[in-house]
Design brief:
- With 360 residues, this protein is of the alpha+beta class.
- The chain has one domain: Beta Barrel (Thrombin, subunit H).
- It has a six-stranded antiparallel β-barrel with strand order 9-10-11-14-13-12.
- The longest helix has 22 residues.
- The relative contact order is 0.20.
Length: 360
């Protein structure tokens, strides 16, 4: 198992290094797809989504078949709901992970944001997988801290509440690729804050942003949006002692993409100061202040300017989490979150080990 885990972590750090270069790595687009709700109204090229390739051949039903997970998902009292913050900066977190082996110390950094006032954080799967692998007999020691503020300072620990099994399965299959490339498909996760690092009680509520899982229309092209995150260019250049400063920027949507769902699964936003490594996992808000997407990869700077990004839509998250679990995104934010996190870990750790072994 030590060899398999070491190999997976090798893939992980390569993925984190290269996943933000998606746009230049995917250059051949297939036939565009019509959006159902506006296709009858438009006949020009602007009525299409651009098709991104999907690597998924099958969707695991492990959580649909797990009686313990299904019961945990509907049990327990409902906690707080609704937005408790309006400024995305207030809701941002930096997820800083360290992986130590006898030979080396490696670090990675990503962004997340509070999506629920009970302490639920949304971030990328390629960041959150550290929390899963830490419980899967890694060939080293993995530690992650949730950091907040300006500059970011350690504040909380968190447990894994959800990561798509399909994403885990898909990325385990390509761990031997020399340069694995992420598309952003199902690259999301939910974390649950478990305790403070200073020993004080957890806050009564966390600064959560409002969010919308509504389908995005092709009319979103050129609409104004706000992007936020913890870009980490200076930290990656100068070392882990460098202050990490949150950023937000006004930008706009340039293009929308689909993984074949005939819906907007990904959208591109034009360049800004947020567009750098480390901003993955940050929110993208519409003009009404609702989170409509999460930063997942770098964009095409030649088309959209320096610091361009791509984000997966909240409708993609909602649709795919329902497909894999039987519950919507909103339903995942209710109930006994601590119990659900425990059951999820017990269910997914054996699944991870099984696909590691089957991929060899």
């Amino acid at each position: 198992m030590s060899f398999l885990s070491s190999l997976f972590f090798g893939f992980l750090f390569t993925y984190l290094t290269f996943s933000n270069s998606l746009a230049t790595g995917v250059s051949t687009w297939l036939e565009p797809q019509l959006e159902p709700d506006v296709a009858s109204e438009k006949s020009d090229q602007d009525s299409f989504f651009t098709l991104l390739p999907s690597r998924l051949s099958a969707i695991p039903d492990i959580l649909l078949q797990s009686a313990a997970y299904q019961q945990a998902a509907v049990g327990g009292a409902v906690g707080l709901t609704g937005p408790t913050a309006t400024d995305p900066i207030d809701s941002l977190v930096n997820i800083f992970c360290t992986f130590r082996t006898p030979q080396s110390v490696r670090t990675t950094t990503g962004t997340g944001f509070f999506i629920d006032p009970d302490g639920v954080i949304m971030t990328n799967a390629h960041v959150a997988q550290f929390l899963l692998l830490a419980a899967a007999e890694p060939a080293g020691e993995a530690n992650c801290a949730v950091r907040t503020g300006n500059p970011a300072t350690p504040a909380y620990t968190a447990s894994l509440l959800y990561i798509p099994p399909a994403w885990v399965q898909d990325n385990a299959a390509v761990m031997n690729d020399e340069v694995p490339m992420g598309t952003g498909e199902r690259d999301y996760a939910l974390l649950l804050v478990t305790r403070t690092l200073n020993g004080e009680p957890l806050p009564a509520m966390f600064p959560a942003l409002s969010h919308s899982s509504a389908l995005l229309s092709t009319r979103m092209r050129n609409n104004a949006v706000v992007a936020a995150g913890y870009p980490a260019g200076a930290l990656l250049r100068n070392g882990s002692n460098t202050d990490l400063i949150p950023q937000k920027a006004d930008t706009s949507v340039s293009e929308l993409y689909t993984f074949g769902s005939n819906r907007a699964d990904v959208f591109a936003i034009r360049g800004s100061v947020v567009g750098a490594e480390g901003a993955s996992g940050g929110p993208v808000l519409n003009e009404e202040g609702d989170v409509i997407g999460m930063i997942v990869t770098r964009g095409d700077d030649a088309v959209d300017g320096a610091g361009s990004l791509r984000a997966i839509t909240l409708s993609h998250v909602d649709r795919t989490i329902l497909e894999e679990t039987g519950f919507t995104l909103e339903e995942h934010l209710d109930g006994d979150l601590t119990l659900r996190s425990q059951v999820f870990a017990e269910t997914l750790t054996p699944f991870l080990l099984a696909i590691l072994q089957s991929s060899q």
